[in-house]
């Protein structure tokens, strides 16, 4: 199969979805009002509520949601063949992700910029809200652990990426100061910052002493490290500590000082990266030799495909970003279509090139089968396959292999980092909400809530046992991340459906993807929790079993409550919570 044809079909569907379907949703379903005073203006505080140009906000939103997951998920999902992954990415993006991301942004804007977890009380009551907040808190904690684990491992594997990534931080702070204190436009400084990053990337790829390789500094992989740990485990621990110190600072600073300008730089970085990869695709004109469907797969694609692709098609975490940070920065309500729906389309474009980069890496079906011999092998090698395949595509533009690999790794690290510090900020919000709910004033304080978020993340990601030894927490909980993430998206779509129904608006556009997603996710979670991870099946999965079982029970409870709310059972009881649109 010709890879260029696959890309054209996918991109064509995305263009049509944004041009027509999102316009229909904006005008006929969410009914955006250009004159509505958004929370960014109504509650402007210069810290979280900051009216922002839609292109800058799109940059923040897109890079916050476009972490490593839309790359990693599709790179694993091609295990069942490239065709199922391709179809779910393009159809899921247009009919599920766009609707979900756009919808959570719109409902939050109409509810004082509150998070989707807080808004839940207005539709499914206090008990449902508390259960929902627990699921959200668990998911965000897992996201923190997974992405911290991913970044630390990438820094160890690709040490040339470290310096360019860290140089971005002071550049972003300078841009934020210039933009908000000196009224300078962000575009040109952001492009210059990106050029500086890539210039450093070219130098570090070729000059070994500029590569911050902690393992080599300690004498190599076989050398002894600290506290009785090996060199690799010690390097991993050091990077985790550095990353968590960084996200603590980044998540407590006002959004304009670091978050917005850094994400704006990264939005250009992703644009440039995508242009490089798609241009490389045109010039190399590769053939897809991987199978369209894998008849030898050791697990069924149904329902695992839909939770494995995860962020590449739809993600509950996007709703947390939409309602947690983006809704507080939306300048005009009509900007929600561009920020929310087009943000989802951007993620789909990234997932599409991830699929193509991986499946064009192999010279034959046998070559593919040797690498993707089992689902566990796919999990272990997916991200590395993307980096290698993307570097080959970039090489079509004449970029040296070492430089191409460094640039691709920088892109992956940058987006994992933006997701990580946004997730810590969101976790701080949720902890504060729980502190308010249970009257624990200390938890509502910014630094206390952030400390709880960072310490709990460190405890989870540094779990000392498991298949990868020390620091395998992120690896261990990855399977639960996919199911919890999709479950959150399904519940959010259910809440949006209730919101639309109460306004007398046709809610089929949110109800249909919600039913599909909830069925697939609960089906997958039931199989995994009670068969694959159960204590009587394999004691090594006890952590997954306990967390998964709790989330599954809470999810069923929320679904039952939400269905009752959708039927109108609680209308009188919840009337006092209706928003004052």
Count of DSSP H/I helices: 22
Shape: globular
Tally of distinct domains? 1
CATH architecture: Up-down Bundle
Estimate what percentage of residues fall within beta strands.
under 5%
Biggest sheet layout: none
SSE string: HHHHHHHHHHHHHHHHHHHHHH
> Under CATH, the topology is which?
Amino acid/polyamine transporter I
**In which range does the helix fraction lie?**
over 70%
CATH superfamily: Amino acid/polyamine transporter I
Low-confidence stretches: 577-581
What is the mean predicted local confidence, pLDDT? Answer: 87
Tell me the Rg in angstroms: 22 Å
Task: Kindly report how far apart the N and C termini lie.
Answer: 52 Å
Main location: membrane
Membrane topology: Multi-pass membrane protein
GO cellular component, one term: plasma membrane
Pfam family, one: CstA
Characterise the protein shown here.
This protein is mainly α and 581 residues long. The protein has one domain (3-579): Amino acid/polyamine transporter I. Helices cover 72% and strands 0% of the residues. The protein is built from 22 helices and no strands. The protein has helices spanning 3-29, 39-42, 54-65, 69-77, 82-109, 116-157, 162-181, 187-206, 214-217, 231-252, 259-284, 301-308, 316-324, 335-359, 365-371, 375-395, 401-437, 446-461, 473-502, 508-532, 542-566, 571-574. Helix 3 crosses helix 14, helix 14 (335-359) packs across helix 16 (375-395) and helix 19 packs antiparallel against helix 20 (508-532). The model is unreliable at 577-581 (pLDDT under 50).
